[in-house]
């Protein structure tokens, strides 16, 4: 299966916290995820327009995904808020997206707990609305929370393993 892995924000345009930047952390998680999906026999493609503005990056990502034969889109992000906010969650728009989000949330939200809802329907997110494949946006944790930031920065492979496990469980 061909799977698009979107590094959710261009360099310097996303969340910051605890000395970390969203693009840098999402890029490392994305690299681990691509390796795991390749090992499982799939064809991941990392999509990253790191030197563009955030809007240009988003538009270029949507164009790339829609001009290809990707069957899934995983958009990787890190949240930022008050330092007490923590945990991962996934956003989806379609019923197939919800099924994928639920499968990924099962292992990821055990690793990165703290959210009241592990999946949320979001029709306002362009990356979910405008792309053709089944898509989910993965908020891997809060970069602004010390505990989450430590896992995001020091153990990104664990986050990638949880996401990969969920994807593989979803597609059988």
Provide a short characterization of the protein structure.
The protein is 45% helix and 23% strand. It has helices spanning 22-39, 54-66, 95-111, 126-129, 146-154, 156-171; strands at residues 2-7, 16-17, 20-21, 43-47, 72-79, 89-92, 119-121, 134-142.
Please tell me about this protein's structure.
This protein is of the alpha/beta class and 172 residues long. Helix content is 45%, strand content 23%. The chain is built from six helices and eight strands. The chain has helices spanning 22-39, 54-66, 95-111, 126-129, 146-154, 156-171, and strands spanning 2-7, 16-17, 20-21, 43-47, 72-79, 89-92, 119-121, 134-142. The strands form two sheets. Strands 4-1-5-8-6-7 form a six-stranded mixed sheet, sandwiched between helices. Strands 2-3 form a two-stranded antiparallel ribbon. Strand 2 and strand 3 (20-21) form a beta hairpin. Helix 1 (22-39) packs across helix 6 (156-171). The longest helix is centred in the N-terminal third of the chain and has 18 residues, at 22-39. The termini are close together. The model has no long low-confidence stretch (mean pLDDT 96).
What's the helix and strand layout?
Layout: E1 2-7, E2 16-17, E3 20-21, H1 22-39, E4 43-47, H2 54-66, E5 72-79, E6 89-92, H3 95-111, E7 119-121, H4 126-129, E8 134-142, H5 146-154, H6 156-171
Helix pairs in contact: 1-6, 3-6
Key attributes of the depicted protein:
45% helix, 172 residues, single chain, 23% strand, two-stranded antiparallel ribbon, six-stranded mixed beta sheet, alpha/beta
């Amino acid at each position: 299966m061909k799977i698009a892995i979107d590094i959710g924000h261009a360099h310097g345009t996303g969340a910051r916290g605890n000395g970390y930047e969203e693009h840098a952390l999402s890029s490392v998680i994305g690299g681990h995820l691509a390796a795991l999906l390749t090992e499982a026999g799939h064809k991941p493609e990392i999509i990253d327009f790191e030197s563009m503005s955030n809007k240009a990056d988003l538009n270029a990502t949507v164009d790339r995904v829609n001009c290809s034969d990707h069957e899934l889109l995983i958009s990787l992000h890190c949240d930022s808020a008050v330092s007490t906010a923590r945990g991962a969650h996934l956003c989806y728009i379609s019923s197939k997206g919800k099924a994928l989000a639920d499968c990924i949330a099962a292992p990821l939200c055990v690793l990165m707990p703290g959210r009241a809802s592990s999946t949320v329907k979001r029709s306002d997110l362009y990356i979910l609305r405008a792309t053709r494949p089944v898509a989910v946006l993965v908020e891997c944790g809060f970069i602004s929370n010390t505990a989450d930031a430590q896992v995001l920065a020091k153990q990104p492979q664990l986050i990638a393993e949880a996401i990969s496990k969920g994807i593989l469980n979803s597609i059988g």
